[in-house]
Design goal:
This protein is of the alpha+beta class. Helix content is 36%, strand content 20%. Helix 3 crosses helix 6.
C-alpha cells in the first residue's frame, strides 16, 4: 500500500454552492449533508429548488455519475456514491471526483467510506457550533491505498455485491410501501372499500364519511411515548444502541452511541415497533434494526384500541403527516408539539373493514419487514468486511468471488 493526498487521487475536490436558494416542495433536488447516509442520497425527503437556482448552483460544481459525496459540515463523515446521472445540486457537501487513471472509482468510494478515513478526518474538524472540514484540509489529506489495480477492483466488487443487494431490497421495500399506501388511500381516503356501495355517507368534521365510522384524534387511539433525554455523559461505546433520527434512516452504524445502564422498559424498542419522528425529519417508521434505547425527539407509538392494528395505525399516521407538518414550527429545525396529537384526527372504520385491510396488507408488511431485516444483516456484514479489506488486513485473493459474497 502507498500513501497519497486526495488532491492527487482525484481530478476534483470541491464543495457545493455557498448560497441559500429558496426551498420549495417541487423542482430540482437540493441535497445537504443530512440527505446522505449509508452510501445513498436520500431523494425521497430532500428539499427542492427552481431550475434557475439549480443552474446557478451548478456553476460551482455539477454532480455526475461516479462522484463521491462527503458531508464535511455539521454531520461530518457521511458518504454517498452517485451511481447514475441525475440532476441535483449540493450544499454543505464535499465532492470527490476520483482520477480513473490512478484509482478505481468504486474502490475510492469504499476508501472514503471506511471508518479509519472518517475517524482520522474527524480529528481535523474546526468550529464549535457547526463543525466542519475545510477544502484545503481535504485536498492535502493523505491516505493509504492499494496501488495494485487488480486488488482495488476485487475489493470494490466484493463490497459492492452487498450494496447491490441492499439497493435491490430497498427498491422492493419502496414498491411494497407504495402498494399498501394505495390500498389505504383507496379504502380510507376515497372510500372505495369492499361493500362501499351499500354504505351511506354522512357529514363529519373531516367531510363526508361512511355512516358508523368514527373520527378520533391520534392520542385517543394510540399512546405516544417520548424517548429518554440522554445526557452527553451517557453516550458510550458499550451497551445497547441509542436510536436517534439518524439511525431511523441509516440503521445502527459504527458511530452510533450506546448506553450500558438500565432504563424503564417503556424506552426499549425492538423490531416491528412503530416510531414517530416529531423533530427535524417529521415522519413515521417501522423499526427493523434490533434492540435499542429510544432517544428523545422520537415517539414510540402503540395502539390502545383493540381493533386498531399497528399496520392500520402506520398508514393512518403516514396519510396524516402533511397535517402534522403544517403544524410544525421552528426556523432551523422543525418540530411537532405534542398538542398536535390531539388536533390531528383520523378515521376509524368498522372492525370488519380494519380486519379486511389487515388481511390485504399483512403479507406485504411481513415481506417488507423481512427485507428490512435482511438489509440490516447485509450492512452489518459489509461493515465488518470493509475496514479489514481497505486496511489490507484481509488478503483479497483468499476471499470468495463477489457473486458468492
Amino acid at each position: 500500500m502507498r500513501s497519497a493526498t486526495l488532491d492527487w487521487l482525484c481530478v476534483l475536490v470541491t464543495d457545493g454552492t455557498h448560497d441559500s436558494p429558496k426551498l420549495q416542495t417541487t423542482g430540482v433536488p437540493f441535497i445537504k449533508g443530512k440527505h446522505i447516509s449509508q452510501g445513498f442520497v436520500d431523494f425521497a425527503t430532500c428539499d427542492f429548488i427552481t431550475e434557475a437556482d439549480h443552474q446557478e448552483a451548478c456553476r460551482r460544481v455539477k454532480p455526475q455519475a461516479g462522484d463521491i459525496l462527503f458531508s464535511n459540515i455539521g454531520s461530518v463523515g457521511d458518504t454517498a456514491w452517485v451511481p447514475v446521472s441525475r440532476e441535483f445540486s449540493i450544499k454543505n457537501v464535499a465532492l470527490f471526483r476520483p482520477n480513473p487513471t490512478k484509482v478505481d472509482p468504486r474502490y475510492f468510494y469504499y476508501l472514503v467510506a471506511s471508518p479509519a478515513f472518517r475517524d482520522s478526518l474527524l480529528n481535523l474538524r474546526s468550529g464549535s457550533a457547526q463543525p466542519f472540514i475545510s477544502l484545503a484540509t481535504l485536498r492535502s489529506y493523505a491516505t493509504a491505498y492499494h496501488v495494485d489495480r487488480t486488488e482495488q477492483c476485487r475489493i470494490a466488487s466484493i463490497l459492492s455485491a452487498f450494496d447491490d443487494l441492499i439497493e435491490n431490497n430497498t427498491r422492493r421495500i419502496a414498491v411494497l410501501e407504495e402498494m399498501a399506501r394505495r390500498i389505504y388511500e383507496a379504502w380510507f381516503v376515497h372510500f372505495r372499500f369492499p361493500g362501499h356501495e351499500r354504505v351511506r355517507m354522512v357529514e363529519s368534521e373531516l367531510g363526508p364519511v361512511p355512516e358508523g365510522w368514527a373520527i378520533k384524534a391520534f392520542d385517543e387511539v394510540a399512546t405516544f411515548t417520548n424517548g429518554y433525554a440522554f445526557k452527553p455523559d451517557d453516550w458510550t461505546n458499550e451497551g445497547v444502541p441509542i436510536i436517534k433520527i439518524k439511525e431511523l434512516k441509516a440503521g445502527i452504524q459504527a458511530d452510533t452511541p450506546r448506553y450500558a445502564g438500565s432504563l424503564a422498559e417503556k424506552y426499549k424498542i425492538e423490531n416491528g415497533d412503530l416510531l414517530f419522528s416529531w423533530s427535524a425529519d417529521l415522519d413515521v417508521y417501522v423499526w427493523a434494526g434490533g434492540e435499542g434505547w429510544l432517544n428523545q425527539h422520537l415517539f414510540l407509538v402503540r395502539s390502545n384500541v383493540a381493533e386498531v392494528s399497528k399496520f392500520f395505525l402506520f398508514h393512518a399516521l403516514r396519510s396524516a403527516m402533511p397535517r402534522f407538518r403544517s403544524r410544525s414550527n421552528g426556523a432551523t429545525m422543525r418540530h411537532i408539539k405534542r398538542s398536535a396529537l390531539s388536533e390531528v384526527c383520523t378515521i376509524i372504520p368498522s372492525s370488519e373493514i380494519i380486519r379486511a385491510f389487515e388481511r390485504m396488507v399483512a403479507p406485504q408488511e411481513r415481506l417488507r419487514m423481512n427485507l428490512a431485516l435482511a438489509n440490516t444483516n447485509l450492512r452489518t456484514t459489509r461493515d465488518l468486511l470493509l475496514p479489514k479489506l481497505i486496511s489490507g488486513e484481509l488478503d483479497v485473493s483468499a476471499l470468495p468471488e463477489a457473486v458468492a459474497a
